[in-house]
Amino acid sequence: MDENNALAAFAALSQQTRLQVFRLLIKSGHTGLLAGDIAKILDVRQNTMSTNLSILTQAKLIRNEREGRAIRYYADMAGIQDLLDFLLLDCCGGKASDYIPLLTALCCPSPSQKE
Q1: For the segment 36-59, what is each residue's pLDDT rounded down to a tens digit?
Q2: Beta strand segments in the chain, E
Q3: What is the Cα–Cα distance from 20 to 90, expressed in whole angstroms?
Q4: 108: how many CB neighbours lie within 10 A of its CB?
Q5: DSSP 3-state assignment of 95?
Q6: Full-model pTM
């Protein structure tokens, strides 16, 4: 990932509804959610949701699959991994021991870190 792609990802997440969508899709895991269900859960109009889903998809934070006439959305784990790699590439002057606590927190959050 380059700097422009990282900026696009952060810009996409800098809006409240898009951040809520992103978090919702992270929580939904491998089952994902239909576009209409996302709109209902977050109480957002369909056309507004469509725009937000498009922005998140272009930023490579979410992906979609067509199911007949419906579209199911998922968190794009490869895109998220690329963003994390970009952020951590030069972390801690190459001293892995300094960023292990960060990686541990990302992989295995403590009960106090969960909502």
Answers
A1: 999 999 999 999 999 999 999 999
A2: 33-34, 62-67, 70-75
A3: 29
A4: 8
A5: coil
A6: 0.83
